[in-house]
Amino acid sequence: MEFFKQFAVPHPSFLIYGAMVSIGLAMLAIVVGITYFKKWGYLWREWITTVDHKRIGIMYLLTALLMLFRGGVDAIMMRYQLSMPENTFLDSQHYNEVFTTHGIVMILFMAMPFITFFFNYLIPLQIGARDVAFPRLNALSFWLFFMGMGLFNLSFIIGGSPDAGWTSYFPLANNEFSPTVGTNYYMIAIQIAGIGTLISGINFITTILKMRAPGMSLMKMPMFTWSAFIANVIVVFAFPVLTVLLAMGTMDRLFGTNFFTTDNGGMDMLWANLFWVWGHPEVYILILPAFGLYSEIISTFARRNLYGYKSMVASMVVISVFSFIVWTHHFFTMGQGALTNSIFSITTMAIAIPTGVKIFNWLFTLWKGKIVFTTPMLYSVLFIPLFTLGGVTGVMLAMSAADYQYHNTMFLVAHFHNVIIPGVVYAMIAGLTFYWPKMFGFMLNERIGKWTAWIMSIGFLLSFMPMYITGLDGQARRMSTYSEAAGFSMLNMVSFVGAGIMAISFVLLVYNIYYSIRYASRDIGSDPWDARSLEWATHTPVPEYNFAVIPEVASTQAFWDTKKNGHELFKGKIEKIHMPNNSGWPFIMACFFFVFGFAMVFSIWPVVIVTLIGILVCMAYRSFEKDHGRYISVKEIEETEAKLRGAKK
Amino acid sequence: MKELFPLKQVMGFVFSLVLTAVALLVHFMDMSFAIGLTVLLITAFMQAGLQLIVFMHAGETGDKKTIYTNVFYGLLIALMTIFGTLLILVWDM
């Protein structure tokens, strides 16, 4: 009986049962729908087994949008709970679970796949390559990430969600204070997804270093590729820390080791320390690709080349080192001495310098540019002042002495949302709008798009500006309720209204996709924005092999030079193209990982052993497999090219 | 014959055995903690460098610059993390 009890949700409520039923119905609808329309074969052949970087990218995108919805619902629930004093909508345990999963879902299962979608889709196109360096590993990365995501979301209906905060500090996260399996889910689901991220980091670094088109030296790469390169370098050096940390945490919880205990020589603060050794570089992993996207968009719509290319690159290289020496600013109040806090205070403020260089570079790009106010550009222009506001409060938080006042208050919550939403989320939506025609062959509606941007910004300001004030007045984060005498109710209600307005902007975004699918023109050519870099030089939709002839590059904006300055991009003639074969093994291996993870969470050891053997067998199979890929013949390429150029049969 | 004999690798192998023997001395001889750890750290880093350069052929291809940049960046990050952590949790606690 004891065994079965752990599968029950520890703190059931009407909401959770409702979610269980709706998840069950949705799953059933999907299975019935796919069977009815006979799409299982299509799904397997075209998507599950694919190794094409563009399709893998789109699967990342779908996951990210789904998780944006889930994390958003969490956010609305929290804002509603706090909108009135003594509210009983969520009890404290449920509130703990909601803020924990909101954090993890938004950072690791929304923002990370969103940037990985851009990495996947854009890097090979921007450097003129036909795929990533290791296409099969790329599929494995996606499926590991996907299974980690699935396992994490399963916690909601089986066994209970993690409830120790997204940082999951020990001793709160140990078996004594977090007795449900929730934190086991945290340790193992993030571990599986994290391995996927680490693999794709290595994959993209190799792709960028080895597969650039002829003539494209490192200093001639488009700015997004540069930012992706630096972000992936940080991934490769930061994620191993997370892997080790989660492994140690798992052992503490499941095998009774004493890494983070408060006795037997354990050191609970080591968790906070190592968590942020990974966690701070992680925020730069998110923000750098966002900066890269802004650079692309701003230079395209200012109709100028990017101001200060070299200083952009230099500032990112500096950030890649500095991001590893500021982590203590997340726990200035932990009890270390003034010397340590001063050192990390100074490094934290210093990192504002390279970021400031980038902000000024964008402003100088806009200066005397012929600005075209499209939707992506609107997001980018809104980003600059809003993000700077977050940056300035960041410098306030960096002062270690003053931080004792801000620490763990709503002020901090307002600050990091203030950098992540205009910084990352705006960039993702701007980039999505910008690259939508490249992916799907039609543009999103500009009018609805601009409404979305403005409504989102108004909602954002209403949600988070009040938190700065209540935070300074002493409202602590992660508190499920407050008394009326505290006087926070008015501002929290404003915040809730703002969150509602942000939800409306998300609905508008979805409606825009629906509207544009129905009404948008399909006759837009392959370069609807009059853009500058290589990804626009190929056809829309992009053929499987990306470029029939590998382009030759002589500047940072080869495609612009081709259009305006008579540069010849495609010099060679069409030859047969070598492409990798599809494979179902990454998916199968990831399924083993999923079952393995589930069995680990509930300590079902026989299943753990069997699935572990399954994983090893998959690896062994891959080692001995003979798969030399396939060739696309010249005739086939010429037919595809003629069709994509618009020839009628 | 001379071209065929992998002199560099054999020398490297002998040297790595010597390094292992020196490291083993820490166990068999009666050293203070500080001296023992110093010996271990020095031999460990030399061993790692030896493996990387002689047996994993870093520096023998066109990627030389990339590989060494990567190694030094990794070392820098590792040292910053270790000394930062020592500072936070031990020296200044």
UniProtKB/TrEMBL annotation, chain A:
It is a multi-pass membrane protein. The chain crosses the membrane at residues 14-37, 58-82, 102-125, 137-158, 185-205, 226-249, 269-294, 306-327, 339-364, 376-399, 419-436, 448-469, 489-514, 583-601, 607-624. One of its GO terms (molecular function) is heme binding. The keyword Isomerase does not apply. Catalyzes quinol oxidation with the concomitant reduction of oxygen to water. Pathway: Energy metabolism; oxidative phosphorylation. Binds a copper B center. Heme A3. It is found in: Cell membrane. It catalyses: 2 a quinol + O2 = 2 a quinone + 2 H2O. NCBIfam families: QoxB. It comes from Psychrobacillus insolitus. Residues 38-554 form the Cytochrome oxidase subunit I profile domain. GO terms for cellular component: plasma membrane; respiratory chain complex. Its cofactor is Cu cation; ferriheme a. This is Quinol oxidase subunit 1. Pfam families: COX1 (PF00115). InterPro entries: Cyt_c_oxase-like_su1_dom, Cyt_c_oxase-like_su1_sf, Cyt_C_Oxase_1, Cyt_c_Oxase_su1_BS, QoxB.
Automatic annotation (TrEMBL), chain B:
The keyword Transmembrane applies. The chain crosses the membrane at residues 12-29, 35-55, 67-91. Its main location: membrane. It is found in: Cell membrane. Pfam families: COX4_pro. GO terms for biological process: aerobic electron transport chain; ATP synthesis coupled electron transport; electron transport coupled proton transport. InterPro entries: Cyt_c_oxidase_su4_prok (IPR005171), Cytochrome_c_oxidase_bac_sub4 (IPR050968), QoxD (IPR014250). It is an enzyme of class 1 (oxidoreductase). It catalyses: 2 a quinol + O2 = 2 a quinone + 2 H2O. Its EC number is 1.10.3.-. GO terms for molecular function: cytochrome bo3 ubiquinol oxidase activity; oxidoreductase activity, acting on diphenols and related substances as donors, oxygen as acceptor; proton transmembrane transporter activity. Keywords: Cell membrane, Membrane, Oxidoreductase, Transmembrane, Transmembrane helix. It comes from the Bacteria. It is a multi-pass membrane protein. GO terms for cellular component: cytochrome o ubiquinol oxidase complex; plasma membrane. Catalyzes quinol oxidation with the concomitant reduction of oxygen to water. Belongs to the cytochrome c oxidase bacterial subunit 4 family. This is Quinol oxidase subunit 4. It comes from Psychrobacillus insolitus.
